[in-house]
Every structure is written in structure tokens, then in C-alpha cells.
Design a protein that fits this description.
The complex is a heterodimer of chains A (about 300) and B (about 325). With about 300 residues, chain A is α/β, with parallel strands linked by helices. Chain A has seven helices and 18 strands. Chain A folds into three domains: about 10-120, Translation factors (Elongation Factor Tu (Ef-tu), domain 3, Beta Barrel); about 130-260, Rossmann fold; about 260-305, Ribbon (Dihydroorotate dehydrogenase B (pyrk subunit), domain 3), CATH 2.10.240. The longest helix of chain A has 13 residues, at about 240-250. Chain B has one domain (about 10-60, about 75-225, about 240-329): TIM Barrel. Chain B has eleven helices and 16 strands. In chain B, the strands form four sheets. Chain B has an eight-stranded parallel barrel with strand order 3-4-7-8-9-10-15-16, surrounded by six helices. A four-stranded antiparallel beta sheet of chain B has the order 5-6-14-11, with no helix packed on it. Chain B has a two-stranded antiparallel sheet with strand order 1-2. Classes of the chains: A alpha/beta (about 300), B alpha/beta (about 325).
Chain lengths: ~300, ~325
């Protein structure tokens, strides 16, 4: 029987703190949502009702880009929340690509949004001793970088913080104008490698090629296939074809790999079984099972998925 | 102004509901999925996601497409099967303290009978909803061969039609299940028929205690870039506010000719929608797609109905029930 006492998800009215354009078609929104922010884990998402008039009808899912600590006004005094205090804001990074995000982009600070979250199973942060010395590679394609900032915040604050120089972020986009969050990652001490399809910045080509060719300038690793034999972990988010390629590359090189997926959802909380994907059935190799992106994911082990 | 004593109670067969707002099958899982967000005790009743005798994996994805003011789904009755339902889902449901109606489905009459017989032995179940109308399981998935289309010929090897499309099959099924259980029986009808009232009458004759009107409308959507259907199952069931006028008409039409209670459903998004169904002749309503948008929909709708009754000094649901019919006569 499920636990009814520990509430993991909440439905709340969250006030918009800010909603600003950061690049062409890309926006960043900050929401005042302390209870959700405190429970949120990297890779989880929130489910936003963008409209009250059935256009669009369903909620929209947004991965949590970051959690923050913002100024609170208490009485007449402004009080700065110290880093040791609990987070109180959620940040989203989103791309305008349909009716839901078009409406969201129009929202102003001070307006409220009906949100449910945090939802889903996030990234499994490997914290055992074997991986403390491991090289961690985060790969983001397009808007897929959104959850990776939160993930790198968590990774750099976790047990492996002394190894933070060992987090390498590979960012892929069509052009250099669409490369986002480079500074955020660098501020956290991550090494950032860029791949653009038009070659306007960094490696010319797809981010998967950058990975496959071992073009990572990771200082302590020799650029031979042997470097892939060591303890390694890949976390990726982006378009499905990109994730599929990364899954293949990681399988060939025996690197543990987690990917965050996207699928059309209805309920977002695991009830309707609308957002399923095919995964391997380890009890019966001949067959597959369906898992829910909203509840069993959105983060999955890349090797578990039947691509 | 003196406070009037009002009642939201209603009855479906022998099932007594504290309020007339239930949650519709397939949109509320087995209750537990919503437990963290919703006070389940405030629901009129819970209708479970349909269970079948054996587990079903469901249809290939994509299973959901959003449409203007609606959505298509083609889940394909994915469920853990009867035994796992009893073992893993029922204990949670029966502790909630509201009537539990188990939706059952199958390909053949004997499957329904076996489900009913087995569930009859379990405590904590108030009724069974017979899902003879899911549009996503018995449809022919293969498009007809081009040759036969050209000749205007009919396709071979079609799977059997929905039971809810056939009066005789509906009668036989309900009658057989009636003999297998004393639980209240609710037959869920499909709107994808020429004459829904005739099917409803067949269910009444078979011994159904109540009717659920309506299941989803059969529909589809195509991606013009790839020319592929947007659903893995090609066709799916349309739900949401888009179908509300159609559902309301089906309830109204049926309520004029059939005397057993009707649970009205189809695109109910708010208390105003729910009241329309009650006025048209529904003894209770079920909330479906709205649960996906606002998990609190059913609870808020029950509250909205109560406020409306109080404001209009109407003492009960029964006082409102079918009033549109009376006004017409």
C-alpha cells in the first residue's frame, strides 16, 4: 500500500517572479514555489496549466532548470536567504514551440500559475565510492540542456565536489546563438564543450559526433579508446534521435548512461498510462514492457529502453 | 433567510452516493495515483480503470493526442489483470470509504462472467461497470487493402465489433453477468452507434441496474508531414469539452425512454457542465478528462453543485433531476 503521509507532489498556485527572453524563442521563468523547490530533484518536472479556456486543454510538462534562493520581503525588511536556508524558487528554461509555450511566454511577473510538482523520477546521482573519482559527462541537445543545470548544481554540491573539474558538459545546438547556459555550467566549475551544426562555434557537427570521436579535451585522459574503459557516467537530455545515438555509444563503451525522455502526457502522475515507452523486460527477454515517462521516468537507464 | 437542509445524496442501483460526482473509468487509475493530491473521501464514488481477466500490455505508443478542446486516447486497456488488481490495488481502494465501482472488460461474455464471479467474492466493492464500449481494443487496426477499397468491397478478417454496438450481444452479456453476481451493475454505453437508446434498453432487459453514458467517440488524427496517424493504434477515443454537447444529448435522449439511473459523462469540466447533465436526466455524473487537467475537478464540482443548490434553495439532486423533461411536457 502506498504511503499516504509523505506528500511528494503538490498542486499549488505559484507566483511568477520573472519571465524573460534569453535567446530567440527561449525564455527563462522563475516561480515562487518553496514547497516544490525543496522537494525537487534534478530530472524531475513540473506540470503547468497554461490556459483556463481549454486552448490548450492539457497541462504542459517542464523539467526543473534550477532551484533558487531569492530575496524575501518579511514585513518592512528585506531578508537575503542564505545558501544554507531552504530554496524557495523554481527556474524553468523553455523554448516556444507550440500553443502552450506561446501562452507561457506572454505571462508577466506577478501572475500566478497552477502547477503540480515535483513529478517523475529524476537522475540517479551515482554517489558510491567507485564513481567518486569518475568522469561525468552531461550532454544536452537544444532545449534538452534545461534539466542539466540543476543536475550539475547537485553534482557539484554532492560528495564529489572535489572532483568538480571532472564534470564535462557537451552542448549541442544548430548555431552558436542557440547555445544556452554555457556560463551557468562554467560558474559551477564544469568544463564546457560546444558542438554546432553550422560550425559557428566549437566542433562542427552533432554533439553525438563530438562524443563519439572522443574529442573531449579532458586533460587527464589519453585520447585513446582506453579512456572510455574507466569509471564514467553519462547523463543526457535532448531529442530522441540524439539520445538513441548516445545510448549506442555508451553501450559500445560500457559507460553507464541515463537519459531524460519526453512523451505526450495526459495526467502526468502515472494514472492514465498515456505516456508509455517500450523497455526491456528483464524477467522475460523475449518480451518488452511499457513504462510511464511521467512516473517511471522521465529519466531512464539508456540500456533499458528499446529504441 | 433560514439555512435550508440540502442533500447531495443519490443512488445508482443499490449504491448510495454521498454526492453525485464520481470519477470516470480510465481517468483516475486505481485511486492511489491521486491520493497525494486529492482528498479521496470527498468523491461520490470511484470507478477504477478497466480490468480484464489477464494482464494487458495495451496499445503501442503514441497513445495520446491533444485536439481542439479535447484529446484522443488509445491506451488499449493496459491493466495488471484481475488477480494483481485484487492483490495490489483493491486493499487501498476499499479503505478510502467511498463506493468502489470496478470497471471490467473483455473480448467475450465468459470473460465478463468470470470477472464478475470472482469480484463478487471480494469485500469492499459496491458495483461493477461493464465496459462493453472501449473503442480502442476491438477495432480493426489494419487499413483495408487498396484493391478492396477500389472495388468498394468489404475488408476481410475484421475483429469482432464492439459489444455495445449490438443490442442482442449487450442483452446476452448483461444477462449472463447478472446471473453471476449480486453487485449493482452499470453498463457503459458507446456513442458510436446508430441508436444508443435501443442498446440501453437491451442492457435494462438484461438486468442492468444503471447505465453510464457515454464512453469516448471514435476518432483519429494524422501528421501531415509524415502522413502517419498520430496514434500508435491509428484510431482512438475522443474525450474532453469537445464532446460535451454530444454526450448531453445522448443522456437526455436516453433519460426520456429509460427509467434506470444514468451516470452522465463526457467532457464535464466544471459544476455548470455537471448540472446540465443532471437536469437532462443523469442521477450522477462522472468526471473524466478534467481529472488530467485539475486533479481536484470532481471535488470542486461537488462543491459547486452544493453551492448552486443552496443559492437556488433546491433541497436535493432529485428535485433538479430531469427537470428539463418536465418543462418540455
Amino acid at each position: 500500500m502506498p504511503e499516504m503521509t509523505t506528500q511528494k507532489m503538490l498542486q499549488i498556485q505559484a507566483k511568477i517572479v520573472s519571465n524573460t527572453q534569453v535567446a530567440e524563442n527561449y525564455f527563462k521563468m522563475c516561480l515562487d514555489a518553496p514547497l516544490v523547490a525543496q522537494k525537487a530533484e534534478p530530472g524531475q518536472f513540473i506540470y503547468i496549466k497554461t490556459s483556463n479556456n481549454y486552448k490548450p486543454l492539457l497541462r504542459r510538462a517542464f523539467s526543473i532548470h534550477s532551484i533558487g534562493y531569492r530575496l524575501l520581503v518579511i514585513g518592512y525588511r528585506q531578508k537575503r536567504q542564505s545558501q544554507s536556508q531552504k530554496p524557495n524558487t523554481l527556474e524553468l528554461l523553455y523554448k516556444v514551440r507550440g500553443i502552450g509555450t506561446e501562452i507561457l511566454a506572454e505571462k508577466k511577473a506577478g501572475e500566478e500559475l497552477d502547477i503540480i510538482g515535483p513529478l517523475g523520477k529524476g537522475f540517479n546521482i551515482i554517489s558510491n565510492i567507485k564513481y567518486q573519482k569518475s568522469k561525468i559527462i552531461l550532454i544536452g541537445g537544444g532545449i534538452g540542456i534545461a534539466p542539466l543545470v540543476f543536475l550539475s548544481e547537485k553534482l557539484t554540491k554532492s560528495k564529489i565536489k572535489n572532483q568538480k573539474s571532472k564534470i564535462t558538459v557537451l552542448l549541442g545546438a544548430e548555431t552558436k546563438e542557440k547555445i544556452l547556459c554555457k556560463n551557468d555550467f562554467e560558474k559551477l566549475g564544469c568544463e564546457v564543450k560546444i558542438a554546432t551544426e553550422d560550425g559557428s562555434q566549437g566542433f562542427k557537427g552533432k554533439v553525438t559526433e563530438l562524443l563519439a570521436k572522443g574529442l573531449l579535451a579532458i586533460s587527464h585522459l589519453p585520447a585513446s579508446p582506453a579512456w572510455l574503459g574507466g569509471p564514467f557516467a553519462i547523463y543526457a537530455c535532448g531529442p530522441t534521435p540524439m539520445l538513441k545515438e548516445i545510448a549506442q555509444i555508451s553501450q559500445r563503451n560500457k559507460i553507464p548512461c541515463q537519459v531524460s525522455l519526453e512523451e505526450k502526457m495526459a495526467c502526468g502522475i502515472g494514472a492514465c498510462r498515456g505516456c508509455v515507452i517500450k523497455v526491456k523486460n528483464y524477467k522475460d527477454e523475449e518480451n518488452f514492457i511499457y513504462k510511464r515517462v511521467c512516473k517511471d521516468g522521465p529519466v531512464f537507464d539508456a540500456q533499458e529502453i528499446i529504441w | 433567510m433560514a439555512e435550508i437542509k440540502l442533500s447531495l445524496e443519490t443512488e445508482i442501483g443499490r449504491i448510495k452516493l454521498k454526492n453525485p460526482v464520481m470519477v470516470a473509468s480510465g481517468t483516475f487509475g486505481y485511486g492511489e495515483e491521486f491520493a497525494e493530491l486529492v482528498d479521496l473521501k470527498k468523491l461520490g464514488a470511484i470507478v477504477t480503470k478497466t480490468i480484464t481477466l489477464k494482464p494487458r500490455e495495451g496499445n503501442p505508443p503514441p497513445r495520446i493526442v491533444e485536439t481542439p478542446c479535447g484529446m484522443l486516447n488509445a491506451i488499449g486497456l493496459e491493466n495488471p489483470g484481475l488477480e494483481d488488481f485484487i492483490k495490489e490495488k483493491l486493499s487501498f481502494l476499499k479503505k478510502i470509504g467511498v463506493p468502489i465501482i470496478v470497471s471490467i472488460g473483455g473480448d467475450e461474455i465468459k470473460e465478463f462472467v468470470e470477472l464478475a464471479r470472482r469480484l463478487d467474492k471480494e469485500k469492499g466493492i459496491s458495483g461493477l461497470e461493464l465496459n462493453i464500449s472501449c473503442p480502442n481494443v476491438s477495432a480493426d487496426r489494419k487499413p483495408p487493402p487498396k484493391a478492396s477499397l477500389a472495388k468498394g468491397g468489404k475488408t476481410e478478417n475484421r475483429k469482432p465489433q464492439l459489444i455495445a454496438k449490438d443490442e442482442d450481444a449487450t442483452y446476452e452479456l448483461v444477462k449472463a453477468v447478472r446471473q453471476a453476481t449480486n453487485l449493482s451493475l452499470i453498463t457503459k454505453l458507446s456513442p458510436n452507434v446508430a441508436d444508443i437508446v435501443a442498446i440501453g434498453k437491451a442492457a435494462v432487459e438484461g438486468g442492468s441496474d444503471a447505465l453510464s453514458l457515454i464512453n469516448t467517440f471514435s476518432g483519429m488524427a494524422i501528421d501531415i508531414e509524415t502522413r502517419k496517424p498520430r496514434l500508435g493504434n491509428i484510431i482512438g477515443g475522443l474525450s474532453g469539452p469537445a464532446i460535451k454537447p454530444l454526450a448531453l444529448k445522448a443522456v437526455w435522449e436516453t433519460a426520456q425512454q429509460i427509467d434506470i439511473p444514468i451516470i452522465g459523462m463526457g467532457g464535464i469540466m466544471n459544476w455548470q457542465d455537471a448540472l446540465e447533465f443532471i437536469i437532462a436526466g443523469a442521477s450522477a455524473v462522472a468526471i473524466g478528462t478534467a481529472n488530467f487537467i485539475n486533479p481536484h475537478s470532481a471535488v470542486e464540482i461537488a462543491q459547486g453543485i452544493e453551492d448552486y443548490l443552496r443559492k437556488n434553495r433546491i433541497k436535493s439532486i432529485q428535485e433538479l433531476w430531469r427537470t428539463v423533461l418536465r418543462n418540455f411536457s
